[in-house]
Amino acid sequence: MKNRTAILVILMCATGLPAIAAIPQPTAAERQMIRKWASEAVPLTADELRPLDNVQIPPSCDYSKYVTFIRNQGQGGCGTMTTLAILDILKEKERPYSPDFSYRFAEYVYNLPGSGMDQMKVLRESGCCSETSLPTNYDPPGAAVPSTANYNEARMYRIASSSKPKKPSSVDELKKLLFLYGPLFAIGDTPGSATHEHCFAIIGYDDATQLFTIVNSFGDRWGTGGMMKMPYANIKNPPPTQTSPRLDAFSYAVNAPTPHFAHPYTARVRIQHNTLRRNLTVKLGVEGRTPMVVWDRPNRNGPINDDSQNLVLDFPMPSYANQCWPPSGNNQWYLEVADSFPVATTQTAGVVQEITLVKRLIQGNGACLPIVIRPSASNFQIPLGGTVKIYIPTKRHYTLSLAVDRPAVAKGETARFTGRLDLHLEFSSNNQQNVPQTGREIELRRTKRDPIEGTVVYETVGTARTDGAGRFTINYAPDQTSDYQAFANKPDHTVDASSNLVTVRVGAGTAPAIKKMPRIPRPLP
Description:
Layout: H1 2-13, H2 28-39, H3 46-49, E1 60-62, H4 78-94, H5 103-110, H6 119-125, H7 148-154, E2 159-162, H8 171-181, E3 184-189, E4 198-206, E5 211-215, E6 227-231, H9 233-236, E7 246-255, E8 265-273, E9 280-286, E10 292-296, E11 311-316, E12 333-339, E13 348-362, E14 368-373, E15 380-383, E16 387-404, E17 408-409, E18 415-428, E19 431-436, E20 441-449, E21 456-465, E22 471-476, E23 482-489, E24 495-498, E25 502-506
Parallel strand pairs: 17-25
Antiparallel strand pairs: 1-4, 2-7, 3-4, 3-7, 4-5, 5-6, 8-11, 8-13, 9-10, 9-12, 12-16, 13-14, 13-15, 16-18, 18-19, 18-22, 20-21, 20-23, 23-24, 23-25
């Protein structure tokens, strides 16, 4: 036992937050391309400046509210991940709960002959499919190759145009471009990056603090959740390399409208993990159908060694979503989250902070109206080395009990029937609750067999209302041996729940044991 305990202690200690992995650097080809882009940067042309002349901009602009998935690059990839961060924001701004996009798809197309190693060209011509459609996982031998379905999906999510590399000339120009077009593709460096050979996205500004906001591709343990501030002063007076974000060149992109039919059903998960998100397996599905794998322990080895903690991801729901909407007792959706720690323990690996299921309705003016459904609870704990299954909507059914104080009485004597009505809520596989139902009408019925038809019929012999603890009492003097059952009625007198049967024997003799029949929970619509 001591040895087993020692092994467990060692394993538990191993789950402490690991040190941040060495920040990856771009490949030689990427370094050359980034330097080429920067060297080709020119000031904005007169045609590009003209739309900015009359733009009245607010004192702040913040696109970080549209950021969900923080990527973590491996051996290079900063350029592609930056363009995907921009595409994520453009599409999320256009339509809430748009899917986050696959680095694997964009990187594959980027490296095809004829692409010119131009990430913006990939988004203009091919677009990008969702991360869940082609997961970015480089652990299996031979990374996945995009399918025809991936290419078809990608064409729905594109940009219309993008600029050539531009030289930053003023804070005011950058602010106007940010407000007018959206996030900017930046070339320069940041703390921890290669000198003058890194890409990141500028995603906001604030005149009150005199700061831009950037998002990087070094995971969510870099900066503040993967983001950092860049002082306005850095534009005119670039800081020493790698001390503060430095901007050498930039470009902007114009969004292409997304087709109305693109992914009408999407979802979002927000999971805070205590160590590493790559330890998680996440599935979404409906009871009785094959669940969709959302996330499956990717990039545990390399070349992308993902050391991010938290998983926030928007993704298309399974293909059967239109047949199983809205979520209900008959369409019981669930999110299943498993932690891969090798020993199941009572400790917590993390918390599921958000599950959102969405039907996106496109109005006549093209605006998106999301219909949002979430569980009625939040912050579901993930057992370390275990699994939690979260129900959407919450599983609900009534439970009604019935007992009698005297199973045998003389004719004319009163029997006291008591019971309790609860609403049983099952938020998840490890979070359940019974809620006493107050002021509900309970009907006590005697069962008897019709002598002609031979069928069982019910006769009401008493009613009561539940008290603050959900309990009720009905006194009744039986005149013959019978079975009794309680029913909880809705206002329209339909039945919410029925109890077990109890038998009361009338006359002399030994009282029989209370006869009980199993209750069948009634799922609520």
